[in-house]
Structure to design on (416 residues):
């Protein structure tokens, strides 16, 4: 998805590996918490069902939707819309359905199965964009993750409680996809210029499902393409046989050939587009050279320092148990560092990042410019104000322990 209309769409790329350890012996067992392919078939609000077709007005345009019993909720595939807002100038497409201050408030249904997929999906969004997900207290506009019969979401901020519905088979990748809808994104094949890149074979589409293949312009939405080409690798892209009535493709490339789809995570182009929708400080540390005082079991493949700047909160760096263990990143240039965000390793037997320093240096092994002591538990994207100019950022424990972190963002601007 390279086009970001006002509720734009995006695609994501993420694979995850969860590792479980004992507190002292540090024995590891790996398991995948995200399906790389995803179950695209259940990325519908009501899989294998056809609702009552009817039309609604979206910004003055007549649009076909389905209804499954709730007269105030209209359905297009896995996208949900409140019908009582559909004929208003405040509808998602015209306002962009943006979340103010880049904050998405959310709540998870009590007893929701496999909540790790939600945490992992949120972690992926936070590690790659300027969006922040905050647990709701008394906010009236928020996302409510709940168990459903399929995977579905309202599109954009609705100004009230809005659900993301997840069946048991909805993977982490599908959850990322549905969050994409909630922040204001449509599907990649809905680009207004899609006919330059794909053919939609309406003869192969299930009866009553043709409306799922409308462009966002045909749905009464406006917007701008921020990239020049359709992205077949978008996590928001339909698979070639979506809603097929005969096992044959419903979408091909414009030359008639097929393509592959994925449900892994955000691509660099998607990150660029989303950051235009939700601008914020640039993460200066992503992919930069990083170092640590030691590596657990000398296994740099799994636990090396680069795992903390790879934009994947399911990988982590890990030192041996030692005095004042440290990790640092060399930005490669002087920067005005606004803040540092830390994702501690999730699902561990013990949080070991509770008493540490954030230090800024003018170069590796050089002059210390600033040191900030942190006496609290560092958890999922916690932000610490730094407000210093420097090149190297170090996280250093103040006691004897292991240091392991899932991700570190250094937010700020390069000094030119």
């Amino acid at each position: 998805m390279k086009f970001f209309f006002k509720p734009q769409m995006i695609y994501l790329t993420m694979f995850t590996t969860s590792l479980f350890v004992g507190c002292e012996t540090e024995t590891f067992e790996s398991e995948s918490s995200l399906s790389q392919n995803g179950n695209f078939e259940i990325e519908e609000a009501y899989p294998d069902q056809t609702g009552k077709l009817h039309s609604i007005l979206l910004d003055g345009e007549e649009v076909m939707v389905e209804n499954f019993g709730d007269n105030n909720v209209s359905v297009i595939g896995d996208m949900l819309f409140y019908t009582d807002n559909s004929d208003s100038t405040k509808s998602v497409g015209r306002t962009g359905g943006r979340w103010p201050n880049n904050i998405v408030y959310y709540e998870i249904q009590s007893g929701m199965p496999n909540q790790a997929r939600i945490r992992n999906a949120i972690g992926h969004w936070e590690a790659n964009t300027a969006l922040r997900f905050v647990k709701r207290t008394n906010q009236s506009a928020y996302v409510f993750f709940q168990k459903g019969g399929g995977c579905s979401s309202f599109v954009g901020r609705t100004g009230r409680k809005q659900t993301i519905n997840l069946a048991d088979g909805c993977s982490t990748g599908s959850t990322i996809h549905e969050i994409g809808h909630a922040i204001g994104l449509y599907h990649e094949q809905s680009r207004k210029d899609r006919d330059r890149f794909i053919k939609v074979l309406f003869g192969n589409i299930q009866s009553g499902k043709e409306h799922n293949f409308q462009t966002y312009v045909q749905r009464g939405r406006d917007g701008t393409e921020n990239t020049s080409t359709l992205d077949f690798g978008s996590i928001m892209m339909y698979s070639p046989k979506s809603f097929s009535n005969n096992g044959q493709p419903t979408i091909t490339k414009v030359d008639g050939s097929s393509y592959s789809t994925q449900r892994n995570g955000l691509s660099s182009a998607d990150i660029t587009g989303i950051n235009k929708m939700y601008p914020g400080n640039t993460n200066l540390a992503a992919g930069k050279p990083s170092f640590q005082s030691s590596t657990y079991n000398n296994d740099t493949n799994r636990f090396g320092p680069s795992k903390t700047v790879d934009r994947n909160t399911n990988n982590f760096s890990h030192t041996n148990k030692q005095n004042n263990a440290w990790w640092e990143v060399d930005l490669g240039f002087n920067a005005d560092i606004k803040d540092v965000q830390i994702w501690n390793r999730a699902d561990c037997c013990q949080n070991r990042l509770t008493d540490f320093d954030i230090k800024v240096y003018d170069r590796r092994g050089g002059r210390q410019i600033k040191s900030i002591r942190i006496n609290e538990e560092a958890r999922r994207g916690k932000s610490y104000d730094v407000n210093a100019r420097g090149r190297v950022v170090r996280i250093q424990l103040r006691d004897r322990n292991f240091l392991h972190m899932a991700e570190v963002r250094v937010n700020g601007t390069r000094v030119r």
